[in-house]
Design goal:
By secondary structure, this protein is mostly helical. The chain is built from 9 helices and no strands.
Length: 173
């Protein structure tokens, strides 16, 4: 369905729609009322305009947004980037260290554990322990409060060991 308007009416409607973005409330209200009149004289309504916007806009569900903590799956060393005799400052050195449990958010912890399960060959005991950690971290918030969500020290050490091992082979979340 196409909303058909005469050229002058379409141009005026376009200007009025843009005026609705004003930070002045009076201008916005005036533009809305004027647009209602313009559309009404053309035998149309805001409903027709909304239908046209919906029909004319390609609605695509975006992929999961790239998290800010994402790092490419490429392992590198300071020497590769800055040369063999390069000095690495503290901030750059921090980027070279694998993340630790305490510094990550829940979704980051889950992403690391799932990556380890998918990409690394684990001994059966480590694989079972990793799956157990995923189940414990992935509980809904209310269940986590009831079951003692925080990992114990042994579980944190296991998490850090798994992530460290994955980091050393170049895996990144």
């Amino acid at each position: 369905m196409t909303l058909r308007l005469p050229d002058k009416t379409a141009d005026l409607a376009q200007k009025l729609i843009r005026l609705m973005a004003s930070d002045q409330d009076g201008e916005v209200l005036s533009a809305v009322r004027k647009l209602a009149g313009v559309l009404g004289r053309a035998g149309k309504s805001f409903h027709d305009l909304a239908d046209q916007v919906h029909a004319g806009v390609e609605t695509v569900r975006p992929a999961e947004p790239t998290p800010s903590w994402y790092r490419p799956q490429q392992a590198w060393t300071p020497a590769e980037t800055w040369g063999d005799d390069a000095e690495v400052d503290e901030e750059q050195e921090e980027e070279l260290k694998p993340p630790v449990y305490a510094a990550l958010k829940q979704y980051q912890r889950l992403a690391w554990l799932r990556l380890v399960l998918e990409r690394q060959k684990l001994e059966t005991a480590d694989e079972n322990a990793t799956r157990s950690l995923v189940e414990k971290i992935d509980l809904p918030t209310t269940d986590r409060r009831m079951t003692g969500y925080l990992l114990n020290r042994q579980e944190e050490r296991l998490f850090n060991r798994l992530v460290n091992r994955a980091w050393r082979v170049g895996l990144r979340v």
